Amino acid sequence: MLADRLKAKFGDALIQSTKDFDFPVFEFQKSEIKNAIYYLKNSEGFNYLTTLCGSQFPEAEKSREYNVMYQLHNFTTNDRIRLKTFMPEEDLKLNTITDIYDAANWMEREAYDFFGFTFDGHPNMTRILNMAEMNYFPLRKQYPLEDMSRDDKNDKFFGR
Amino acid sequence: MITEDIVQEEKKEYTTLNLGPTHPATHGIFQNVLTMDGEIIIDAVPTIGYIHRAFEKLAEHRPYNQITPITDRLNYCSSPINNMGWLMTVEKLIGCEIPKRAEYLRVIIMELSRIADHIVCNTVIAVDTGAMTGFLYLFQWRERIYEIFEEICGSRLTTNIGRIGGMERDFSQSTWLKIETFLKEFPAGLKEFGALVNRNRIFMDRTINCGAISADRALSYSFSGPNLRACGVDYDVRVMNPYSSYQDFDFNIPIGKAGDTYDRYMVRNDEMYQSLRIIRQAIDKMPKGNFHADLPDFYLPAKEDVYSKMEALIYHFKIVMGETDIPKGEVYHSVEAGNGELGFYLISDGGRAPFRLHMRRPCFIFYQGFTEMIKGRMLSDAILTLSSMNVIAGELDA
Fold first, then answer.
1. C-alpha–C-alpha distance, residues B262 and B62, integer Å
2. Average pLDDT of every residue of chain B
3. Quick one: which of B9, B63, B136, B366 could link to B223 by a disulfide (CB 3.0–4.6 Å)?
4. What angle do CA A73, A76, A79 make, to 5 degrees?
5. pLDDT tens-place string over residues B273-328
6. Does the beta-carbon distance from A102 to B54 stay under 8 Å?
7. Which residues is A27 bridged to in the sheet?
8. What counts of helices (H) and strands (E) characterise chain A?
């Protein structure tokens, strides 16, 4: 079982392993997540990074407020897994995995753009979809749907 | 010591060329800042996000059934596949089994839109190599497909087709007729286009070895769909993780070898024939039964019932106001969209709108490989590579 092998290899750094619908989910400590991905690619055959994204849980306890999720796919055995790591708002630094999967480049930039995660060692840690002058991270829950910096909208015209 | 070579190197001046954001040859809003040595591309820096519409944020503020129209605007060349992908994600979350008939109807729609998507891509490759005729010939078939969509759901491009739990209505008699006519007449049209282009000397000279990428590099860049298959990797979500009864059908996955523009073109060309095969089988094996699941919490009741039955009215109200309970959980579902694996990663906290929705857009991911594919090639090859990758701005920027 993959979960047992990961447990033997990473010990306490593997915080928990669960199953969400058809996906095995492994939660790692932030410091070990890159090593885990490196191991999974080179020793377990997870050759494909399906996706990577961040999310924020403002209701959760402070140390688990922010989350980055990685989804890997093993083409040989057709296994898909999800890796997760949680962190508090003060510490949104992770190690980049662009040296393991090239595809992570823009995905990490997107995670930075939306939530403000920074990835150490990333070749170009800048915003990707939003404009460079933007001074907040729009997908964080405290920011409303509409752009707060605009003053050209009169609420009267929108029935408010 | 300064050698002759270094002196030569210092004399060399590179030109910076701004290709885009709106350039008539790029079919969409793509900006590439190219460093050119004469006609040769030394480096390219793509800038994206010009039509970013914050779908992921928007989705956190909308009830589940109102997110389907957002997915239309991802890859707008094959909206129905995006719709179905999203609907199946929600169905997976609520754990609902949908009837075989609805699944088969969905398969027909998805394969039709895959053909429409590939028609756009392939004819545009032909246009970029200078063959306008084929484009005009084949586009009338895309028009026929849109007429079928119009018959099914009332709209053509941004379809919002299907509902959570099945289809909004069964196919009408005239829909079946139109599909039959399409199946009968389209292969001849596609063959005619193939005869014009596939073995055309000019076309082959322009596309073979143009924008090639190896399978290893493509996997590292997480390519998917026809672009990955052109490199020789037979990854197709329809086969690897069958959804919507794809396991019932017999079809091949065409693959290429060199990963260049010609192979991408040929893979798409062959996929259209496979799609026709799937549609044929789906029609022949079409099961009897209902076209939607019995799912009163999510599936809108018939209009005449809403006006005459109390229960239907209550459900109608609850669905429209987004007040139905949805299980908590995290779910990922992916479908084989026109140009790759389109995935939806959905976190639900039980509320009326998703807590978080992340879309794995194939274009966004494989467009990263573009720089590597065009380095050292001519500018005109870059245009061709871009159109053969079928990068759709709507999906790229979400």
1. 42
2. 91
3. B366
4. 40
5. 999 999 999 999 999 999 999 988 899 999 899 999 999 999 999 888 878 889 99
6. no
7. A16, A84
8. 3, 7
Q: Give yes or no for residue B55 having a pLDDT over 80.
A: yes
pTM for this one?
0.92
Q: Residue A48: list chain B partners with CB under 8 A.
A: 219, 222
Q: Which CATH superfamily is domain A2-146 in?
A: NADH:ubiquinone oxidoreductase Nqo5 subunit (3.30.460.80)
- Report the distance separating Cα A58 and Cα B60, nearest Å: 14
CA dihedral B201, B205, B207, B209 (to 10 degrees): 140
Nearest-angstrom CA–CA distance, B140 and B142: 5
Instruction: Give per-residue pLDDT as tens, B133-157.
Output: 889 999 999 999 999 999 999 999 9
> What would the 3-class secondary structure string for B320-377 be?
HCCCCCCCCEEEEEEEEECCEEEEEEEEECCCCCCCEEEEECHHHHHHHHHHHHHCCC
CB-nearest partner of A21 from B217, B329, B397: B329
Question: Is the separation of the CB atoms in B391 and B121 below 8 Å?
Answer: no
At A26, which amino acid appears? F
Q: Are B365 and A103 within 8 A, CB to CB?
A: yes
Hunting for tokens 């964080």 — which residue is that?
A: A140
Residues of B in contact with A114 (CB under 8 A): 56
The H or E element spanning position A122 is none
Distance CA B157, CA B79 (A): 7
Output the six-digit token pair for B169: 């209505």
In what helix (H) or strand (E) does residue A17 lie, and over which residues does it extend? strand A14-20
CB pairs under 8 A between A and B: 82
Residue B327 C-alpha from the chain's centroid: 29
Q: Which of A95, A98, A127 is nearest to A113 (CA)?
A: A127
Rounded mean pLDDT of B193-202?
A: 92
For chain B, domains (ranges, CATH) are: 4-47 (no CATH), 55-397 (1.10.645.10)
Q: Where are the beta strands (DSSP E) in A21-78?
A: 23-28, 48-56, 66-74
Give me the residues paired with residue A79 across strands.
A74
Q: Which two tokens stand for residue A128?
A: 């990707």
| Mean pLDDT computed over A73-97 | 93
Residue type, A12: D
Distance (Å, whole) CA B343 – CA B335: 6
Report the alpha-carbon distance of residue B350 to residue A3 in Å, rounded: 29
Two tokens, residue A19? 């199953």
